[in-house]
Amino acid sequence: MSSNKQAQEHIVFDDNKLASILYGEQNTHLTRIEKALNVSIANRGNEVTIHGQQQNIKQARQILDALWDKLLKGEDVEPETVDSALRFLLNNEPKGKSNDKKMHNSDQFSEFQSDKTRITTKKRSVQARSPQQGKYIEAMYNNDLVFGIGPAGTGKTYLAVAMAVSMFESGKVERIILSRPAVEAGEHLGFLPGEMKEKMDPYMRPLYDALHDTMDSDKLKKLIATEEIEIAPLAYMRGRSLNNAFVILDEAQNATDMQLLMFLTRAGQNSRMIITGDPAQTDLPKGAKSGLKEAQYVLEGVDSINFTQFSTKDIVRSALVTKILEAYDKKRPLS
Question: Between the CA of residue 1 and those of 4, 5, 6, 53, 74, what are the distances in Å?
Fold first, then answer.
């Protein structure tokens, strides 16, 4: 019964201007926290009072303190930042004793602002926006081959590109190679007009978008022209040995088992490979075997290889995307 007792906590921030940023335009940040944690937050000037159950108040205080620390460091606090903090606090809670849960949440929330879950390029700094994104970033730092597997909107491709740019700019690799199965895994690019880059551009757009977001546009154009950043369809990887390179294979669910094995054996000296895909969205012909599923079965547990599995609760693109995918997951077994 005592756990349901209502309480309140008063907080005073020492900078009125930063406090208004913390609250968000028309208190939108506070509203997000209220809805997620079932608390009521009243604010006046640089003062905040939180009403609710004691544990919920404690969590709201954790969120506000973490966001305040970001502001003091000169970092932006936007609605997406608030959502990220809430994901770290609330997602992936283990089943078990409450003391274990509290310890887990405390450890997990500390990763919200950890350098271990941050990717830095010359243009911007990218912080993990969910616990699973944090694990993915750490895996890319520590493993030669990483698989990012899960639904659209979880950031698996964007973070892979950001890591590639970061390692290229720091001199850890000499080039970036981006690859993707094209035209429903058939790769009939010869029928399309233009040079190879022009043929591939429509299929590589998500990778280009991530590159433009993490690298200066003029610099990017020069690196593509000198082939230090290379765009290559999966079929054109055969016979190559990729040394000193950060190699990304996107949409790997559309690669057959033989195609993916071919790609995996391109790894050379000082190479780093990231493979992303969503097994639920394969375009392979009926009866064709997905190389992504096969690789996960064969390579699970092999040293220096990591599999990071995302789910709908890791979607950071939009709350609507989460709702759409969850609805489809519920209906699929009936079809």
Answer: 6, 7, 11, 11, 43
pTM flag (> 0.70) = yes
CA dihedral of 146, 205, 161, 311, whole degrees rounded to 10: -50
Q: What is the largest CA-CA distance in the chain?
A: 71
Q: Answer yes or no: are the C-beta atoms of 229 and 176 closer than 8 Å.
A: yes
Q: What is the pLDDT of residues 9-25, one digit of tens each?
A: 999 999 999 999 999 99
Place of tokens 């990887």: 237
Reduced to 3 states (helix: H, G, I; strand: E, B; else coil), residue 277 is strand
For residue 229, what are the contacts with CB-CB under 8 A and spacing of at least 6? 168, 175, 176, 177, 178, 211, 220, 223
CA distance 148 to 167: 18
Rg of the chain (C-alpha set): 22
At 121, is the secondary structure helix, strand, or coil? Answer: coil
> 271 — phi, psi (to 5°)?
-100, 150
Query: What is the Cα–Cα distance from 127 to 125, expressed in whole angstroms?
Result: 7
* CA–CA separation, 256 and 289 (whole Å): 6
DSSP state of 250: -
